[in-house]
Amino acid sequence: MELLRFEDVAVGYEGKPVAEHLSFAVHAGDYLCIVGENGAGKSTLMKTLLSLQTPLSGKITYAGALKKNEIGYLPQQTEIQRDFPATVREVVLSGCLNRSGLRPFYSGAQKQTAKKWMERLDITKLQSKSYRALSGGQQQRVLLARALCATKSVIVLDEPVAGLDPLVTADLYALIGRLNKEDGITIIMVSHDLSAALTYADHILQVSRGSNFFGTTEDYRASELGKLFIGKAGDSDA
Known about the structure:
Blueprint: E1 2-13, E2 16-27, E3 31-35, H1 42-49, E4 57-62, E5 71-74, H2 79-82, H3 88-93, H4 108-120, H5 136-149, E6 154-158, H6 166-181, E7 186-190, H7 194-200, E8 203-206, E9 213-216, H8 217-222, H9 224-237
Parallel strand pairs: 3-7, 3-8, 5-6, 6-7
Antiparallel strand pairs: 1-2, 1-4, 8-9
Helix pairs in contact: 4-5
């Protein structure tokens, strides 16, 4: 089932595009990684997808079953966010706010949803701890649980492993992969980690100045744009 579609969309600020001719679709159960060089417009695209800003041109369609306020979002963390003075449970529950409407209290169903995702992400034992006292990897699990409370089907992640050590990074990628394969959560992730994108994603969207690519990971590896970008990434790692 198709969840959303971009048709020849341009994104940018104050009428000036940073990425153009973006055409792609996301279906239920997809794992899409958005890659590209710095400044190519990946974060602007993500904000447009989340309806945090409007496209400059083109058409964006959301499926009837997918409401704009029911997409979970895990943004890059700032230093202020890392020092947020709340308990783990409070942070996770706050993911339900978009769907709470005008109700001043969380419903029993929302509390059960938070409990479910804390258990699934193995952070139940941390629920009474202060969020700011956690390690970076624990904080990302909490924010991931928060994002899952905001959605029934789709989460958008912006560089979720930034600043984490290699072991914690591998663990978080594996967890996101299980959420996709075992829980059926559709993943849309912006990442500079091309190796992980090629390992976990089943679709790749490369945003580039002049030309873009959208297709399966296998087709991306075989494409001229993909070969060029993979080669550049390999050179930078050397």
